[in-house]
Write a structure and sequence with these properties.
single chain, 2 domains, alpha+beta, D-Maltodextrin-Binding Protein, domain 2, about 700 residues, 16-stranded mixed beta sheet, 4-stranded antiparallel beta sheet
């Protein structure tokens, strides 16, 4: 079993969190938090949850409950992930999440469904879409052919911001009189670089001694956290032309020029003449599901590619790639909730100029097939549906094949098996050459990942700037100096608008904060912490007077975004037989506090380093940056802590921030009686808008 730990919650100073021994905490009641959503963070979410607590993780023979160090997806698959570890060389103390935990009774389970499906379950307060059919399976409960087994979620993650229409659904459903989950909360939990992932092996050559890998010859390999992780250089013009289908081969002169004039072919195991004549095809891989990673990707291309290509297919940010809905391509057999099907509304897509070629990747069988060769009952490529029983359709240059989830994209790019390879004119060489977009958690040196990532030119000048990798540091630089809502200083202190000279002067659209202000249809409104949409819109909205947005950042890694955590203000008792058992509420605050860096003590009153999850220095690298993912800067975590994790006394506009009733609860329990409803004075820390018996 892991070590039993309790902790202290740090008090928040103006610009940093300061620990104090006056707030010793108790072991919280047994609780299981349930979440779903973005596959881009499918591993970092359970990895961080498991550091809070993971009961039963090392119980021999336990095949039912021994799943907390695994991530599930909607196909019913469960994958074991490497445990997190903070092992600094110059700071103390370390934390090994394989053997240690913060709370002994805590567990969290996460299903990688894609952002859209996660938001759907969160806002509708049901998991009924996990009905047990193909690609709709809860791997932790129910299983294939069975309903979910979960009534609702306590949280979801999404790389795409919550649309205004979905907030309306949440308010009418999750926060209905029957559920009373309270005001919605949307906060940027992670800063996510989207990697352009490639397999360094672009082909395989058959020799008398056996198969030999043919690898890209990158003139200046680049590292992340001291580990070589790729570095194939791409200017903005190059990646805009690749994803718009104008560059379709790795032998393109622009790629040669970006590689310091050096051709990318393997000089030992390939041939210059063959490379010049046919090179290696670029085979694009995208997402079949409604994907927040696609939202970040398309947002960047829509903002960055105009003028660099003949036609920019990417007209706007969307959770689906550009698609011609008059085509016959129908991906619903692979993923029932996909938007890629004939007559699907054009508003579902990033554009209407076709970017799909009709091929899909079956991550279970590791094969490529045509969309109409997928069995609807199994969601697998079925040879009995293919002409002659063989999958023979070849890729269309410049068009995407699609895969289910980030894991599917990564698997497709990584695989060199079966018909994943294309024959060269040289009979001894087969070519791969796939390129996909995934959250940087899925590329090296993230634990257990071997895919390489391209180095993209930093900044919003397409003709100059260093080539940078999708690291946590570079994602943080892209995030820049944008301040949270109702904030005017880097302390993150509350500063609501008072008049034309006092408080935060920034405005957003009131009807839709993500769109430009229009006096008649989308009038302006001042930013507000009480509006969950504003915590996202302020990062992307063109009305906000900042030097750049994440869609086209002034520095850092140019294809970056934020992964938002969606949760609630009110939580029902974790155990209906114990009225007032507020374990779910405690657990959400526990998890957020750990991510914000406020958990600073364990059961022996020993320190838990505040950099355990966020530390960016290579010598003291935190658990999250080890996965190539950053956390928002301190100004944001300070603001989120004061707003949602305590009844803050910060003043503003003749009131305090705590008076706005935006907080989940005011701190954590400090005595044993606080967790069983016997000490109402100490335990009544929940928000007064909540019902004691209802919530998420």
């Amino acid at each position: 079993m892991k070590l039993t730990r309790i902790h202290l919650l740090a008090a928040c100073a103006a610009s940093s969190f300061v620990a104090t021994t006056a707030h010793a905490q108790v072991v919280l009641p047994q609780v299981e938090l349930r979440g779903a959503g973005a596959s881009s963070v499918a591993e970092i979410v359970p990895r961080t949850l498991n550091c809070v607590g993971n009961p039963g993780n090392h119980v021999a023979g336990d095949t039912v409950n021994n799943r907390e160090n695994k991530v599930g997806d909607n196909t019913g698959a469960l994958k074991t992930i490497a445990p997190g570890a903070y092992n600094p060389t110059t700071a103390t103390p370390a934390l090994d999440c394989e053997t240690q935990e913060i709370q002994p009774n805590f567990s969290g389970k996460y299903i990688s469904t894609g952002s859209g499906a996660g938001r759907q379950m969160w806002r509708t307060f049901t998991t009924s879409n996990l009905n047990g059919s193909a690609s709709n399976i809860n791997p932790f409960a129910g299983g294939a052919g069975n309903p979910s087994g979960w009534a609702n979620l306590q949280f979801a993650f999404s790389d795409a911001p919550l649309p205004a229409s979905e907030l309306t659904t949440y308010n009418s459903t999750a926060n209905s009189p029957a559920n009373k989950a309270g005001p919605a909360i949307q906060i940027p939990a992670f800063v996510l670089p989207v990697a352009f992932a490639y397999n360094p092996t672009y082909g395989i050559k058959t020799t008398p001694a056996g198969p030999v890998n043919i690898t890209f010859h990158v003139k200046v390999p680049q590292s992340i956290n001291g580990v070589v992780a790729g570095g194939l250089s791409m200017t903005r013009e190059i990646y805009c032309k690749i994803f718009n289908g104008e560059i379709t081969n790795w032998n393109d002169p622009l790629l040669t020029a970006a590689n310091g004039g050096l051709k990318l072919f393997d000089p030992v195991n390939d041939f210059s003449g063959r490379w010049t004549n046919e090179g290696a095809p670029i085979r694009l891989v995208g997402r079949a599901d409604k994907s927040g990673t696609t939202d970040i990707f398309t947002r960047a291309l829509a903002a960055q590619c105009n003028g660099l290509v003949a036609v920019n297919k990417f007209a706007n940010a969307s959770e689906s790639l550009p698609y011609d809905n008059t085509s016959t391509i129908d991906i619903r057999n692979l993923r029932g909730d996909t938007k890629y099907f004939p007559t699907s509304a054009s508003s579902n897509f990033s554009g209407t100029v076709q970017s799909l070629g009709g091929l899909v990747w079956d991550k279970n069988s590791h094969v490529t097939c045509a969309w109409n060769e997928v069995n609807a009952a199994t969601a697998l490529c079925d040879a009995s549906l293919a002409p002659g029983g063989v999958f023979t359709k070849t890729p269309t240059p410049g068009l995407f094949m699609v895969a289910d989830g980030s894991s599917g994209v990564a698997d497709a790019v990584n695989s060199t098996a079966n018909n994943a390879l294309i024959n060269s004119t040289n009979k001894n060489i087969k070519l791969n050459g796939k390129l996909g977009y995934v959250g940087a958690d899925f590329v090296a040196p993230s634990p257990s990942r071997t895919l390489f990532s391209a180095a993209l030119r930093s900044g919003n000048n397409p003709n100059s700037g260093a080539f940078v990798m999708p690291s946590a540091t570079n994602a943080g630089l892209a995030f820049g100096s944008v301040l949270p809502p109702e904030t005017t200083s880097t302390t993150g202190a509350w500063a609501p608008y008072v008049d034309g000279t006092t408080g935060d002067q920034r405005t957003l659209g009131s009807a839709d904060p993500y769109k430009p202000i229009d006096p008649s249809t989308n009038p302006e409104t001042h930013v507000s912490r009480a509006n969950p949409l504003h915590w996202a819109a302020i990062l992307y909205n063109p009305n906000v007077p900042i030097t750049s947005t994440l869609a086209s950042p002034a520095g850092g890694y140019p294809v970056s975004g934020t992964t938002f955590m969606l949760t609630s203000t009110c939580f029902k008792p974790a155990n209906a037989l114990i009225p007032g058992n507020n374990a779910k509420r405690f657990a959400i605050v526990e998890y957020l506090g750990l991510m914000f860096g406020t958990i600073t003590r364990d059961s022996a009153n020993a320190l838990v380093n505040g950099q355990t999850f966020r530390g960016a220095a290579v010598a003291n690298l935190g658990i999250t940056p080890k996965s190539n993912i950053s956390v928002p800067p301190l100004v944001w975590t300070n603001a989120m802590y004061e707003t949602f994790l305590k009844k803050s006394a910060q003043p503003g506009n003749s009131a305090t921030l705590g008076d706005q009733n935006l907080w989940i609860q005011d701190g954590l329990p400090t005595t044993g009686s606080d967790v069983d409803n016997k000490n109402q004075v100490a335990d009544q820390q929940s928000n007064p808008v909540c019902d004691a018996n209802l919530g998420a």
